[in-house]
Amino acid sequence: MKFSNTLVQWYLQNKRDLPWRQTSNPYYIWLSEIILQQTRVDQGMAYYFKFVEHFPTVFELASASEEQVLKLWQGLGYYSRARNLHFSAKYIVTTLEGKFPTTYNSILKLKGVGDYTASAVASICFNEPTAVVDGNVYRVLARYFGIESAINSTKGIKQFKQLAQELIDVKIPGTHNQAVMEFGARMCKPQNPDCEICPLNSSCASLATNKVKELPFKEKKIKIRNRYFNYLVVHTANDTTKLVKREKGIWLNLYEFPLIETSSIIDETELVAHQNFKKLFHSLNVSVQLFNTKVMVHKLSHQHIYTNFWIVKTENSNQFNIDWNSVQDFPVSTLVNNFLKQYRSN
Questions:
Q1: Up-side HSE of residue 172: CA atoms within 13 Å toward CB?
Q2: 72-84 burial, b for 16+ CB within 10 Å, e for fewer?
Q3: Annotated catalytic residue: which of 33, 128, 182, 256?
């Protein structure tokens, strides 16, 4: 209980003034938690405000088109979060008659919601004593208790969840959960934690054994996959282009220019000789020019994408029917959006 009391006391004195802490509305709490998955608070804040403004209730979110949701999410990455958010909003409105689920188990049934998000919403909004375990919590518990189990192993995940559940203050579970997370984010930081002024420093196992930098322990990362993208940026005499909706993999349902993926970086001669290039332009007259002076590298958690954007000027054709002035209205990946910013400025 001392552990919880100390952290809660610290939290009440030091917590950040965040908009989702000013409400107990489960829709807003859920929205903030989905946005903050894999996202820093300072980056996620603007998206939270945008979503609340455009979709003030779950009903507006449910009635929006997927393209509207993806466009608003653009730049935040991990787009499956947005698709799952939209899917779950429609489920809440149609199946649950607009009533947000009120228990950990029922919240867990929402698409895209795992143990952490269900625990956060259930404890903060409905006072259910379910402990959250995220990166911040792993770090605080591993360091304070000197736990060397890998946080990304089956054994470690189970061990940390059990410990977190044992530590939770059942009277104020929401405040307790937020206190541990805030403490990990601002005091027990990944790099250069403030151990000298930490209210738990006298009883911290990793500080006593000089293992703060070693914990939490994580098993070796997965191998990064390299991919090579060649985008065909069509520009006709009528100022039109072509966009394609991705049907699988990363950036599902986002739009992009016609893509030729290769096993390595290719030059213009290899590009023009590629069967997909010939299929797209067949008898049309074209001129091809590489836009970027060096290969653009876009790094994702599991893959690095090496990209060239090829400007293909060609004759008018019915298959190139998107006006360049409307390209900005389509939801696209950060990679394509960054290109568009540079292309428009030239």
A1: 13
A2: bbbebbebebbbe
A3: 33
What does the pLDDT look like over 79-103, one tens digit per residue?
999 999 999 999 999 999 999 999 9
The alpha carbon of 300 is separated from its chain's Cα centroid by a whole number of angstroms, namely 11
Name all domains of the chain by residue range, CATH numbers in brackets.
2-214 (1.10.340.30), 225-345 (3.90.79.10)
Cβ proximity of 144 and 212 under 8 Å: no
Do residues 340 and 328 make contact, with C-beta atoms less than 8 angstroms apart? yes
Give CA 81 to chain center in angstroms: 7
pLDDT tens digit string along 112-165?
999 999 999 999 999 999 999 999 999 999 999 999 999 989 999 999 999 999
**Cis bond upstream, residue 216 (ω within 30):** yes
The Cα–Cα gap between 125 and 129 comes to 11
Strand partners, 290: 310
Q: Is 247 a catalytic residue?
A: no
pLDDT in tens, 300-338: 888 999 999 999 999 988 899 999 999 999 999 999 999
Q: Is 54 exposed, middle or buried (0-12, 13-18, 19+ CB in 10 A)?
A: middle
